[in-house]
Amino acid sequence: MKYVDTKKGTILLMFRPIPDFVQKCLFVGLILILLTPPATAEQGVQDLLPDSTVARGTGLIAEAWLGQPVGRYGHGVLGDRTEAGTLYARLANGRVVGHRLDSRSVFEDLTVRLADLNGNGQDELVVVQSSLEQGSALAVLGLRAGRLQAIARTPWIGTRNRWLNPAGIADYDGDGVMEIALVRTPHIGGTLQFWQLAGGELIARGELYGFSNHRIGSRIQDLSATLDWDGDGIADLLLPEVGRRSLAVVTLSGGTTRVLTTLPLPAEVKGPLTLNAGGRSVRVPLENGETVSIGPDT
Ligand SMILES: [Ca+2]
Ligand SMILES: [Ca+2]
Ligand SMILES: [Ca+2]
Question: DSSP for 150-200?
């Protein structure tokens, strides 16, 4: 048996009966452990879904993101067939919490949206959840007793591989409570819907057919913008009509969904749409490489 001459001999001598190769592996492993910095209370973004975006908040939830990439759905409308199995949030105190789905659904989305939907001063988390059998729904999660919990969900669309894309979150009818706007099935003739969180449920507030805020296969989901187009003090929604060769301005003011105006475009909307400084106009990148600026005063 070989004698190991080392100043760390107390460790290696413990393994003298073990073959040389295993000894070396254990020694390298020990060095790696010693070189690894200790875990800190402040954890960063971990396990991020490829090509997804981290949302940032200013309340108890500092950051939120989608993670745990999974291949169990295979729909692929967001550019690949990898979706998220877990939603994570990093709290203001640095602690990371997660909400993991079971094998029957995925988060089919590229970002989490943070907004205070019930007016309690803390953000809820809004995300697209898709059932492997029944297609998508809009899900709202919240921080309850220090844990991320599912609060409410719209009904599933009802058919596998049918998706929806959120379009905006604002008080679109002027009642003082936020609504979530989304387009149901934006690839096959989409319906704009407004949903409000009330009494722990998502309640439908209005809908209108004829919109498309996503091109199948694209990673760009922001094909809409929220601004007060008609200056009545209530937020309006600008989004593409079916075919994405025109934009419509939609209002829910007074509780009735209606189109204020439509605007033809020289090419298909590519996105992402962004508000210009001052919030009175919107930058609209088009598929032909042009970018147009659109607003009530332009
Ligand atoms: Ca809230
Ligand atoms: Ca409202
Ligand atoms: Ca308005």
Answer: EEEEPPP-SSTT--EEEEEEE-SSSSSS-EEEEEESTTSSEEEEEEEEETT
Q: How many residues are given for the chain?
A: 298
Ligand in closest contact with the CA of 205: 2
CA dist 281 and 296 (Å) reads 7
Expressed in angstroms and rounded, the spacing between residue 228 Cα and the centre of ligand 3 is 4
Q: What is the pLDDT of residues 39-91, one digit of tens each?
A: 333 567 999 999 999 999 999 999 999 999 999 999 999 999 999 999 999 99
Which DSSP category does 48 fall into? B
Compute, in degrees rounded to 10, the torsion defined by CA atoms 102, 105, 108, 111.
Answer: -30
Calpha distance 225→31 (Å, rounded): 53
CA angle 252, 170, 253 (to 5 degrees): 20
**In this predicted structure, what is the pLDDT of residue 11?**
37
End-to-end CA distance of the chain: 87
Q: pTM value?
A: 0.85
pLDDT of 58 reads: 97
| Nearest Cα residue to 203 out of 140, 112, 134, 122 | 140
Q: How far is the CA of 175 from the centre of ligand 1 (A)?
A: 16
Cβ-contact 65, 48 below 8 angstroms: yes
Which 3 state secondary structure label does DSSP give 62? Answer: strand
> How many Å lie between the centroid of ligand 1 and the Cα of residue 114?
9
* Å from CA of 177 to ligand 2 middle: 4
pLDDT in the model for residue 87:
98
pLDDT tens per residue across span 183-241: 999 999 999 999 999 999 999 999 999 999 999 999 999 999 999 999 999 999 999 99
Q: How far is the CA of 277 from the centre of ligand 1 (A)?
A: 28
